[in-house]
Amino acid sequence: MDFSNSSVESDTKWFDAWLSSKSIRPVDLQWIHHLQDHVSSQDESVLLAGVLVSAYLGAGHTCIDLTAVFNGDLAGLEFHPAPSVVLSALDIHSVGAWYRRLSDSPLVALFDGASSHSASSASFSLASSAPLILTDAGLLYLARYFSYEQSVLSFIQLQESKGRRQVDGQKLDSLFPSDVQSSELDWQKIAVANAASMDFSIISGGPGTGKTTTVTKLLALLVWQSLDEAANEERDHLTNEFRESDARLLSNALHKSSLPRIALAAPTGKAAARLTESISGAKKKLNIAQPILDAIPETATTLHRLLGADYGRSQFKHHKQNPLHIDILLVDEVSMVDMPMMAKLIEALPEHARLVLLGDKDQLSSVEAGNVLGDLTFGIQREKVTRAQFTGLTDSLNAAELERLSRQVIEQAPAIQRHLSLLSKSYRFNDQSGIGLLASAVNQCQVDGTLRVLRGDYDNVYWRSTDLKETQLDVAALAQGYKTYWAQVRQRVAPAELHTAFNQYQVLTAVRQGVMGVEFVNDALETYFYRQGYIESQSMWYPGKAIIMTRNDSNTGLFNGDIGLCLPDEQNVLRVWFTLANGEMKGFLPSRITSFEPVFAMTVHKSQGSEFERVTMILPNNASPVLGKELIYTGITRAKHYFELWANEFILQDALKKRVQRRSGLTKAIWR
Ligand SMILES: Nc1ncnc2c1ncn2[C@@H]1O[C@H](COP(=O)(O)OP(=O)(O)OP(=O)(O)O)[C@@H](O)[C@H]1O
């Protein structure tokens, strides 16, 4: 090969250069080499494509787009020499030529999207055993990931082809007692009306926009409708105004009827615990008959546990042949759900079941490959409804609401739009809240707006502008936020109380390495706490030690992301205490805890699904490919009452201009 036009020495293989610059991992090269040996294929352009697919998968993309790669649009990844330079040296001078070489390879199977789509089934299976799949749109996948994506797509297409279910407008009205004269639309009510009429719906919204409140009312409506149907067997008519006298009747119906079996789930233990807490909080605020409330579960579980993870096997207990025994599944924090998990979840869903997805579409994507929530909500119209959606809502909304809603109607939109609701009014942050304004400016990539809020006189936002040359971390300032926590440790409060104290404050970092990276910051904080006398012993485990699990562990039942705090139990034996997904507290002997790291500071990625009263977020003083507006937005929205940013202005500006977009074929297929 001749790299005379590239920056690499002519005797250097492109993959050596990519390996040494860490653009690819050894594993990216190994698997495709292995496959090539297997079929004795020597086409280097196929090798290159396979390496890229694997490397992009490692960075969260489910596929590569041949045209984009060929044209140098590398989605934030860097390769020297550029893939197009290598291809040129291989005598490939057009995307078409590369496509043909791939099509001819025994390692690649072709997929013709137009002839293969069908809305009759919610799952997809591959006909070929080739490890790579090339679509007619020029997207190249690892076969397994292609299969996951197609399963999700088939499910969506099936849902789009379904009709609407009846919604009881009077019951809806009593869940949302609104002022008919008001000129404002209640988008939470519209979201409930819409979701109740569909088997599949997504409700997206930023922090405090009432997602939990809304789905709790949705569940109440669905339960109430079911109970009513059952109660109708007992008497001809049940008034929609629910009275105490109806309770006896309904409780009879309860025994007779098949109440909807509802499951609540979230991707991590932490997010499940928060859902448990917020659903029970939202239920308490609902003024509705007890039998209805009783039928709404309060305990959420993790997706892994719901699907029946068996750590010895790669398959979950629940799948297409053994679906979940549920009628309604609510999944929170869906931005964290990756493509394989979504495909497996959909596969395990019984055909008749409803699926309601909740999340903030603007947050960081899942750690593993895919951006399912982002893809599904890609073209969502803020506070608009489609003509078809509007027509479907006419039974559930009153005349005044329909009149107001008719002003928001858009004529045409892809079918997926009918399944989406977007909540944008925050009930946590008002128009004057620095955190709310900052999150909104960052989310819209407004550099000036962001700086204006940061420089403004807001009592819940503070910016510590750092110098690019700064190499010292002000640990003492960072550690201030942990004073109350250490006071509680010293008082030996109950583990649940200590967890509450820990949730008061969290240091977030954008990166892992370097002075502003999570490893260094944790080390520095621990050393500082030791010197200050907060840490009383030199042993590895001490009262107050805070850790985060880095893997799911079948022995303890703990999940990646679970936070454990160390305290002696009543027998003075040191234990690590975790809040389980059902809200209970459990203490483990330290020897049982494996795969963990300290968590006085955590990365923004790990903080997804958690909220803290006060947050300090530290950005590195050098550019990093992980820095983008989604990361900064996610960090800000972890703070409920106070947010402090330690960042250099140029680094911040640069990050705000960057959108980390993950490649997949889902967006195009759904929003075509
Ligand atoms: N329509 C409303 N009117 C008044 N308060 C509301 C309304 N909707 C929600 N709230 C209140 O706003 C707060 C946040 O609501 P909720 O927890 O439902 O939002 P969320 O979007 O689920 O929040 P999070 O970002 O924490 O997941 C709660 O205290 C809730 O009672």
What would your notes on this structure say?
With 672 residues, the protein is of the alpha/beta class. It has three domains: 14-142, RecBCD complex, subunit RecD, N-terminal domain (Arc Repressor Mutant, subunit A, Orthogonal Bundle), CATH 1.10.10.1020; 162-240 and 247-423, Rossmann fold (3-Layer(aba) Sandwich), CATH 3.40.50; 434-657, 3-Layer(aba) Sandwich (Rossmann fold), CATH 3.40.50.300. The chain is 39% helix and 15% strand. It contains 29 helices and 22 strands. It has a six-stranded parallel beta sheet with strand order 7-6-8-9-5-12. Strand 8, helix 16 and strand 9 form a beta-alpha-beta unit. Helix 11 (211-231) crosses helix 12. The chain is globular and about 80 Å long. Residues 1-11 have low confidence and may be disordered. The structure holds adenosine-5'-triphosphate. Adenosine-5'-triphosphate binds next to helix 11 and helix 13.
Low-confidence stretches: 1-11
Distance between the termini: 40 Å
User: How many distinct helices?
Assistant: 29
> Structural class of the helix and strand makeup?
alpha/beta
Give a short account of the largest sheet.
Answer: 6 strands, parallel
**What's the CATH architecture of the largest domain?**
3-Layer(aba) Sandwich
Strand order of the largest sheet: 7-6-8-9-5-12
Please, what is the average pLDDT? Answer: 88
InterPro entries: Coronavir_polyprotein_1ab, P-loop_NTPase, RecD, RecD_N, RecD_N_sf, UvrD-like_helicase_C
Domain UvrD-like helicase C-terminal: 599-642
Pfam family, one: RecD_N
Family: Belongs to the RecD family.
